[in-house]
Amino acid sequence: MKKNKKTISMADTGGTIRINKYLALCGVASRRAADRLVESGQVMVNGRVETRLGTVVRSGVDEVVVSGKILALPEEKKVYIMLNKPRNYITTNRDEKNRETVLDLIDVRERVFPVGRLDRKTTGVLLFTNDGELAHHLMHPSSGVEKEYLAELDEPFQHKHLSSLTGGMRLKDTGEKTSPCRARIQKGGNEVIVILHEGRNHQVRRMFRTLGYEVKRLERTAYAGFRSEKLRRGEWRYLSPDEVDRLRCGGGPP
To answer: pTM of the predicted model, to two decimals?
Structure first.
């Protein structure tokens, strides 16, 4: 008879786990092979490359990434959450300056992490999960997940700039070339809706700055079709099984 596989809970680890054991529990590699991954700089902890073999990670707190995939212990119940992010919250699991983070707004037992990033001043739709495979799929450029933003500008947007905004542009600060996107000017002209597939750092703000505008307020109004208009700022809710299925297909509610 086949023996049942032993499950390991967060409590079993005492809250912290050596990095090689954590990688092994996540099914990445044996502990010895995990040590080699760490030494070769292929492991990131909380956004930084970690090469110290004795590193300890905290279950439910630290974000561990290998080959672009966010890891989660296999025995965790998979949860999927949508938050309407308020202004001035940092999109990270932990902040070295002890500023408030988006995780301070979510009260769940499971270890979850944000899917992608919103800068401190940007509000709106932010998804969370402990499903590393789905998170990686959603964040990978090849998935083509749409992100919709509402940008309030310091002056009315000129229609003559619309083709430059949507056709793919060279960002003034770095010279990076953006992919084509969609946009429409709202009534009054000071607000523009931008829909893109990319996720470069501060991309929407940088695109408008390249054209001579400053973004006074930025809200992500939709991510993969999910909208947060029924949630007040700072409120969150679980996604339903049907919503998760649609998310796996790359799109939100019909």
So the answer is: 0.72
